[in-house]
Amino acid sequence: MNKKKVCGKPEIWKDPPGAAMYCPGCQHPVIDRVISEVLEEMNIDGKAICVLGVGCHAFVQVAWDLDILSCAHGRALDSATAVKRLNPDAIVFTVQGDGDCIAIGAGAFIGAMARGEKITTIMFNNTNYGTTGGQLAPTSLLGQKTPTTPRGRDAALEGYPVHTAELAAAFKGTAYSARGSVHTPADYQRTKRYIKTAFQKQIDGVGFSFVEVLSACPPNWHLSPIKCLKRIGEDIVSEFPLGEFKNEDSTERLSKSR
Amino acid sequence: MAEKMFVQGNEAVGWGALYGGCDGFFGYPITPQNEVTQWFAHEFPKRGKVFLQSQSEVGSINMLFGGAAAGFRVMTSTSSPGWGLMQETISHCAAAELPCVIVLVQRGGPGAGSIRHAQMDYITATRGGGQGGYKNIVLAPGSVQEIHDLMQLGFHLADKYRNPLVVLMDGILGQVSESMEAKTIEFEPLDQKDWALKGRERQEDGKSRLINAAPGVLPLPPYPNYISWLKHMEEKYHEMEGSELRYETYKAEGADLILVAYGYTARVSKEAVNMARAEGHKVGMIRPITLWPFPYSVMKEKAMLGCKFLVVEDSLGLLIDDVKIGVEGRADVHLVGILDRHIPTDGGMIMPGRVFEEIKRLL
Fold first, then answer.
1. Could you say which of A45, A49, A75 has the minimum Cβ distance to residue B197?
2. DSSP track, A83-144
3. Measuring CA to CA, which residue among A110, A137, A132, A145 is closest to residue A55?
């Protein structure tokens, strides 16, 4: 009889200090857990090389029993590119924050998609720079008050929220792009399916695969963890719709995609 | 196996890297080193090696960060503006102790400067140009053959010390064609890279590896804290200084005047020494092959014998500072620099005749 694990911690999750580095109510370790479950269920954790940027997302380096490279801010996809090109049999994935991926790392992100790198990127979107105190991020909502937008994000001054998953879908080299969240159990399961599909695209050698995941940041949002989930379900999801934006099965289909 | 060929300095970078076991090249087009990138585009894929044109020099150097972390011999090549862009991650490579080779074919500066030769990046090359005061070996070839040889030494020393290494050239050295013998040079055996990332199940001990460049934020074993890690780095830098100094002397024995130069201006200086010797002047040359570590002690020794110094470098004077440090105020140090070029354009060069004039003026 096949046994399926229904509770307990993932095997690749080390004992503390691991998750202890995250603030109460932070959803980053929840998303880390989704990734852990996917890696274990697909049995690819042993040949995975995880490449991290700089930001709260990178604290997972002390928690995961994986080969991990922690890069310069915004550069994970450049470094991951070389890891994958030199070591094509490895499963190479980046975990990045929204600032790391689409602000300082925008050049690396676009370069990797333009080349159709066979890499999987999981981008955590908490609509601010969590590590440095919650400043304006490309993903901050209009009106969002942050230490660098004390009167709220004003489109005339700071522009509009950047839709990264939709941007990724626009690149011909991208095989898969989706946006998920973990603010309800159903969304947790859907996001897990997205991440699994993204890794499958890499295994199948189709192209770049990308999953953006919304994440709560209670200290910087100045909300309780419960109210953060409500904010995600209402304000954030209405700006950043959940779902799949691109899903192609072959390089032939990618070359014809518009 | 050895191959005799007549090639450009920029192509010699490629042959040296190939025979030195380079696995991957990552680069972005910039003049005057485009022949380097193009050589790798032609020669690497057909040999099953990786060539990739990056989206920027920032991309190139971060690709080196990844490729080196995966345990491969990786390199890039650039010219001065691209060199500026790479500094942050060269520092990260130093912090994460990731070996890689960066070839810098210098052009005129500052800013976009000129697209022709110059020697104006000496300070950033030799002083750890990025943040945080790291150190890296700098090799300065003076001929096409030496480019080939030092590329191989460069990969060896980068791996030996787990440190980024710079091969410092200039536009003229890159463009000059000479005959060269391509062959693998044997070095002392090095340990396997058991620190490299392969995926946990491919590690011999089955244990996962972590590489980061923030030793003061997240301490990495075996260093329990930031200062113990810095102490380790200091010891490594001392070992490089003690073991890796390389220089060449030319007719320096009994000389009254010592010329100091590297790269193309060392070729010019050698010619000027010959002109001076032909007229009976006691003139010699010291050519540092490693610009870091620098042969300070040799400068001091000559200064104590009463020698004068003439630095020949195609800049407003950068190498001259190291010579002054070496002589410790015991000798006069003069400069023939970029203002002494034969014509006042970006195509001007420091010519042997101009150096010879200065030699006669000083003696």
1. A49
2. HHHH-TTSEEEEEEEHIIIIITTHHHHHHHHHTT-S-EEEEEE-SSBTTTTSB--TTPPTT-
3. A132
pLDDT of residue B1: 76
CA–CA distance, A236 with A220 (Å, rounded to integer): 15
Report the percentage of chain A scoring pLDDT > 90.
88
- The ipTM assigned to this model is 0.96
Packed helices A106-114 and B57-69: angle between N→C axes, nearest 10 degrees:
80
Quote the domain boundaries for residue A231: 18-251
- Does any domain span residue A102? yes
Do residues B16 and B164 share a domain? yes
Q: Are residues B159 and B275 in the same domain?
A: no
Cβ <8 Å between B52 and A86? no
CA distance B279 to chain A (A): 56
Number of other residues whose CB lies within 10 A of the CB of residue B4: 9
Give the distance from residue B239's alpha carbon to the nearest chain A alpha carbon, in angstroms: 27
Nearest to B89 among A66, A75, A107 (CB): A75
Class of residue A142 by CB neighbours under 10 A (exposed 0-12, middle 13-18, buried 19+): middle
Q: Which residues form the domain of B260?
A: 250-362
Does residue A250 carry a pLDDT above 90? Answer: no
CATH number (domain holding residue B260): 3.40.50.920
Q: Is residue A256 part of a domain?
A: no
End position of a domain, from candidates B132, B150, B183:
B183
CA pair distance A107, A102, nearest whole angstrom = 8
- Rounded to whole angstroms, how far apart are CA atoms A246 and A258? 11
Indicate if B155 and B283 belong to the same structural domain: no
Which of A47, A82, A110 is closest, CB to CB, to B66?
A: A82
Please list the residues that pair with A121 across neighbouring strands: A94, A210
Structural domain contains residue B301: yes
Residues B19 and B162 in one domain: yes
Q: In this structure, is residue B215 part of a structural domain?
A: no
How far is it, in rounded angstroms, from Cα A65 to Cα B62? 24
B324 part of a folded domain: yes
pLDDT above 90 for A15: no
CB contact, 8 Å: B49 with chain A?
no
Residue A257 lies in a domain: no
Q: Give me the residues of chain B with pLDDT under 70, please.
A: none
Domain contains A140:
yes
pLDDT digits (tens, 9 = 90+) for A20-44: 688 999 999 999 999 999 999 999 9
B193 within a domain of the structure (yes/no): no
> Considering only CB atoms, which chain A residues are within 8 Å of B48?
none
- CATH code of B146's domain: 3.40.50.970
Å from A185 to nearest chain B CA?
31
Rounded to the nearest 5 degrees, what angle is found at the Cα of B22, between the Cα atoms of B20 and B24? 165
CB nearest to A70's CB, from B202, B208, B211? B211
A71 with B24: Cβ contact below 8 A: no
Q: What is the sign of the dihedral through the CA atoms of B73, B79, B81 and B84?
A: positive
Q: Give A69's contacts in chain B (Cβ within 8 Å).
A: 65-66, 69, 197, 211-212
| A87·B59 Cβ contact <8 A | no
The predicted-structure confidence for B256-300, as pLDDT tens digits, reads as follows 999 999 999 999 999 999 999 999 999 999 999 999 999 999 999
Report how many domains make up chain A: 1
B62 and B89 Cβ atoms separated by less than 8 Å: yes
Q: Which of B183, B27, B179, B181 is nearest to B103 (CA)?
A: B27
